Amino acid sequence: MPLYDYICLDCHKRFDVFMPYSEYGARPVACSHCQSENVRRRVPRVRVAKSEESRMDDLAGDFSDPSALAGLENDPQAMGRMMRKMGRELGEEIPPEFDEVVDRLEKGQSPEEIEKEIPDLGEGGMDGADMGMGGMDF
């Protein structure tokens, strides 16, 4: 049985409804929060699955020119943008510490400052690897 996403136009809350295809459009839907029937179907975001090869090709295109990496060590914001893009393209679950580091870089904080403020960042990391700042090779 499919799950349909709705938003209530009165209380502005989102909710889901399970119903068979045969009932969709024929059965009235009421908000699960305020019971209003003034609702609209939400169309969820579409996700496109990419192969690992396609993701790596996208990254290689961005960084195939060595000049694209030049100066990153002196520009924390550019380093943060590059790391965020790499994290998205890898398509793997990334520990929350990674997001914290990237957020700080994007705000202009240097890797050295981040390492001083969070010295035990990611100890034990994924698969037991050291995910500390030193392990990120800035």
Describe the secondary structure blueprint for this structure.
Blueprint: E1 3-8, E2 14-18, E3 39-42, H1 52-63, H2 76-90, H3 96-106, H4 111-117
Antiparallel strand pairs: 1-2, 1-3
Helix pairs in contact: 1-2, 2-3
Description:
The protein has helices spanning 52-63, 76-90, 96-106, 111-117, and strands at 3-8, 14-18, 39-42. The N and C termini lie far apart (49 Å). The radius of gyration is 22 Å and the shape is elongated. The protein folds into two domains: 3-42, Rubrerythrin, domain 2, CATH 2.20.28; 52-136, no CATH class. Strands 2-1-3 form a three-stranded antiparallel beta sheet, with no helix packed on it. Helix 1 (52-63) packs antiparallel against helix 2 (76-90) and helix 2 (76-90) runs antiparallel to helix 3. Mean pLDDT is 77; it is low at 124-138. The protein has four helices and three strands. 33% of the residues lie in helices and 11% in strands. A hairpin with a 5-residue loop joins strand 1 (3-8) and strand 2. By secondary structure, the protein is of the alpha+beta class.
